[in-house]
Amino acid sequence: MTLLPERCNHVGAMHQEIRRAESFDLTTLSVALRQLRNLTVAAR
């Protein structure tokens, strides 16, 4: 059972990466939505 702490640390690191990716995706999504809204407003 010596692999257990290593695996826990790996899962924690993966979770941090996923959380970082999620926050990055959210900011990218909000920027993309704002640009899309600006395009639709400009197209009118």
UniProtKB/TrEMBL annotation:
It comes from the Bacteria. This is Uncharacterized protein. The lineage of its organism: Bacteria, Bacillati, Actinomycetota, Acidimicrobiia, Acidimicrobiales.
